[in-house]
Amino acid sequence: MTYCLNRKSPVAPDQSWLLRLLTKLLPCVTRPVVLKWAITQDLDVTAQLSAGVRYLDLRVAHMRDGTDRNLHFLHVVYTTALVEDTLTEIAEWLEQHPREVVILACRNFQGLSQTLHEYLVTCIRNIFGDMLCPRGEVPSLRQLWARGQQVLLSYEDEETVSRHPELWPGIPYWWGDKVKPQDLVCYLERMKSCGRPGGLFVAGTNLTETLEYVLAHPGQSLRSVTLPGLPFLGAWVRAQCPGPASRCTNIIAGDFIGATSFVSDVVGLNRKLLQC
């Protein structure tokens, strides 16, 4: 959801004290820099779905001093889009594409009380209704088609999941927190060598930068740093094998998905299954 970050939004309270101090003292200088390093996608959510994305990382937050029921998404700063509006947009796209299935991962939950968790789950139920697949064994596409279910909703708050059978537990995410693509691939290969988790899990091909690097390179952006590494990461993606074996991948996530052949590379991995 970082395609719609709010330029006027405050920096999230979980960010470093130094970043929060700088944005307060020098907002005209710091905020444009922060924004460039917080944006990880250029396409809006409908365009991402139409491009073939079927896993969405939705980091939900309640803005401090914001309206009680207005939930935003968050990646360093808050989005202009509201959660309820975005979920409705996803549901409308699914109604137009009845044989497509998406995995929505609601996580982070910055500033959410249990009351707001219940409000969010009510929104989810009202918006998706019978599209939601209740938790249990991971179903096949044929099973989902037969039931008319199109949404597996992962929710990272265990207490809330325990109360609602339509929510799935948080999906494990392999996040390397690496600056260089070579280091990230080494991390992912090391994780694979330990054996895949049971059920769904995510291998993240996301590069990250430290605050010190950002402050030292204010003219750059996450996009300008990420794009040169995408061919190397793309080669790793194309070399993967899906399936249940211990070193197989499952969900693969990435940034700036419209900039390369990332989506077609991931979808293309399924042909390896068909050849088995």
From TrEMBL:
Domain of life, source organism: Eukaryota
Biological process annotations from GO: lipid metabolic process
SUPFAM superfamilies assigned to the protein according to its UniProt record, in alphabetical order: PLC-like phosphodiesterases
Any Pfam family hit: PI-PLC_X
Any GO molecular function: phosphoric diester hydrolase activity
PANTHER family per record: PI-PLC X DOMAIN-CONTAINING PROTEIN 1, PTHR13593
Protein name: PI-PLC X domain-containing protein 1 isoform X3
Source organism per UniProt: Erinaceus europaeus (Western European hedgehog)
